[in-house]
Amino acid sequence: MFLLTSHRYHRSLTKYLFILFAVLIIGLSACQAPQQTTPAAPSTSPDQPSAAAPVGGVPWVADGIITPGEYLNHKAFGDFDINWYNDDHYIYIGMKAKTMGWVAVGFGAETFMKNANIVQGYFNGTKVEVADQYSVGNFGPHPDVTTLGGTYSIVDYGGKQVDGYTIIEFKRKLDPGDQYHKALVKGTNNIIWAYGSDNQFLIKHISRGTGEIIIQ
Fold first, then answer.
1. Which residues, in sequence order, are CB contacts of 35 under 8 Å at separation 6+?
2. CA–CA gap between residue 77 and residue 98 (Å, rounded)
3. Where are the domains of the chain?
4. How far apart are CA 106 and CA 129, in angstroms?
5. What fold characterizes domain 73-215?
């Protein structure tokens, strides 16, 4: 009787210890901290310049062709047209004039041409030339900014001549960050414009004027 009882006791004790061990294992598993997933770092810096956003479904391309929908804004000053739009970092411009010579637009002029940053370009039938200049006097001269210690600010450009018109397109930072380039700011910005009769930057203009563009 004692032996039978003893065997039953041992079987019960073993069964109890097994259940207790299983409960402890489950409890320890439940107390483990959940696995943390580290968020992936952004692939680009938030300060990285944005790309040219399509306007009207047409992306900006510096090919000397002003495609409908490529620009958001347009103004005409006689035989000189300026088309433009901007994003947070750049301005994209297409200028067109009834000439087979150069065309130009200037930003930040104070008295007449003084202190203006002038972008002047031409197409000679085989290649495009676009100069980044700074006017040191009321009526020039306006040498290349690099000769004055500045930095060439035109990021991309292109041009063509079509039906008696010269078209120059270019992309420039809104604020190139030196004294030879006045920052273009949100709201109204004054411009000067001109065009000449020849594919030489030093040939005097045949028409010029002033105007305004609005930066969004």
1. none
2. 11
3. 1-28, 73-215
4. 16
5. Immunoglobulin-like (2.60.40)
Distance CA 143, CA 135 (A): 7
Per-residue pLDDT of the chain (216 residues; tens, 9 = 90+): 333 334 444 444 444 444 444 433 334 333 333 333 323 333 333 333 344 554 567 899 999 999 999 999 999 999 999 999 999 999 999 999 999 999 999 999 998 999 999 999 999 999 999 999 999 999 889 999 999 999 999 999 999 999 999 999 999 999 999 999 999 999 999 999 999 999 888 888 999 999 999 999
Does residue 95 sit in helix, strand or coil?
A: strand
Q: Are 120 and 134 in contact (CB under 8 A)?
A: no
**Cα gap 6→169, rounded to integer Å:** 101
Return the amino acid letter for 106.
Answer: G
**Backbone phi, psi, residue 36, to 5°:** -95, 140
**Cα 209 from chain centre:** 28
Question: Dihedrals φ, ψ of 123, to 5°?
Answer: -125, 125
Q: Which tokens is 58 given?
A: 């047409």
CA torsion sign for 204, 200, 170, 131 is negative
The pTM of this model reads 0.74
For residues 35-46, one letter each, b for 16 or more C-beta atoms within 10 angstroms of the residue's C-beta and e for the rest, the string is eeeeeeeeeeee
Task: With CA atoms as reference, report the closest residue to 71 among 51, 91, 89, 49.
Answer: 91
Backbone Cα Rg of the chain: 35
